[in-house]
Amino acid sequence: MKLPIYQVDAFASEAFEGNPAAVCPLDDWLPDKLMQNIAMENNLSETAFFVEQDGSYRLRWFTPTTEVDLCGHATLASAHVLFEHLDYSKQSIRFDSNSGELMVRKEGNHLVMNFPSAKLNRAEVPDFLEKAVGVSAQELYRDTDYLYAVKTEEQVRNLDPDIPAMAKADVRGIIVTAPGNNYDFVSRFFAPNAGVDEDPVTGSAHTMLTPYWSERLNKKELVGRQVSRRGGTVYCNYKDDRVEIAGEACTVIQGQMEI
């Protein structure tokens, strides 16, 4: 069996930036175990699979170790493949996912994703988490992830966290964020529980970052920079119960898998 596969750098204007994702368009679903093995073989933070259904697309995402309910950069990558390689001609794409309906539209060089906003539930900072991060938190919020706010961009850039200790947190991942020097905010994202020690650019984390910084900075439109080694810029627009998350993408590999 041969499967088409693309590798796309999401939230990147050129190759080798942003967050790489694998995208596998399918005619019919494969067994879950096989999709998980393909994601493990790709060894990227996410592999996306989608199947067309009644004018929309059912979309699923797998890390090397587990299926996840929401992934921003691999959604961006999937939309990029449809627009650039599979002759999708409409201006917007509707994806159905475990997190509900996700819309992606094309605006110039940007792909704009419309996701549900995360909830900001104030939480107490566990002792193990502060030790793991290595920097004191100003605030901590919890939803699918922890949002761990610190004082300065330099603290975020210079983090050297204890990744195994972070895995004690009973959440998908830990977002560490601070005000930006040249952007509205900066962030890094660690998800050892999902098999990803540090994710280069995490679209889904911005469903939590956007409402947090929108309230803190009193503005709806924001520009964030995820300051991982690869790095990526994310354009955000807070719409109360929804968040628009935009960026660019480029294809770096196109081929076939033989199973």
Describe this structure in words.
There is one protein chain. The model has no long low-confidence stretch (mean pLDDT 96). The protein has helices at 32-42, 72-85, 127-133, 153-157, 163-166, 206-217, and strands spanning 2-10, 19-26, 47-53, 56-62, 67-68, 92-97, 100-107, 110-116, 121-122, 139-142, 146-149, 174-179, 185-191, 196-199, 221-226, 232-239, 242-247, 249-258. The chain is globular. The chain has an 18-stranded mixed sheet that branches. It has six helices and 18 strands.
Name its key features:
6 helices, Diaminopimelate Epimerase, Chain A, domain 1, single chain, isomerase, alpha+beta, 2 domains, Isomerase, 18-stranded mixed sheet, globular, Phenazine_PhzF-like, 20% helix, 259 residues
Topology of this protein?
Elements: E1 2-10, E2 19-26, H1 32-42, E3 47-53, E4 56-62, E5 67-68, H2 72-85, E6 92-97, E7 100-107, E8 110-116, E9 121-122, H3 127-133, E10 139-142, E11 146-149, H4 153-157, H5 163-166, E12 174-179, E13 185-191, E14 196-199, H6 206-217, E15 221-226, E16 232-239, E17 242-247, E18 249-258
Parallel strand pairs: 2-3, 4-6, 11-12, 13-15
Antiparallel strand pairs: 1-2, 1-18, 3-4, 4-5, 6-7, 7-8, 8-17, 9-10, 10-11, 12-13, 13-14, 15-16, 16-17
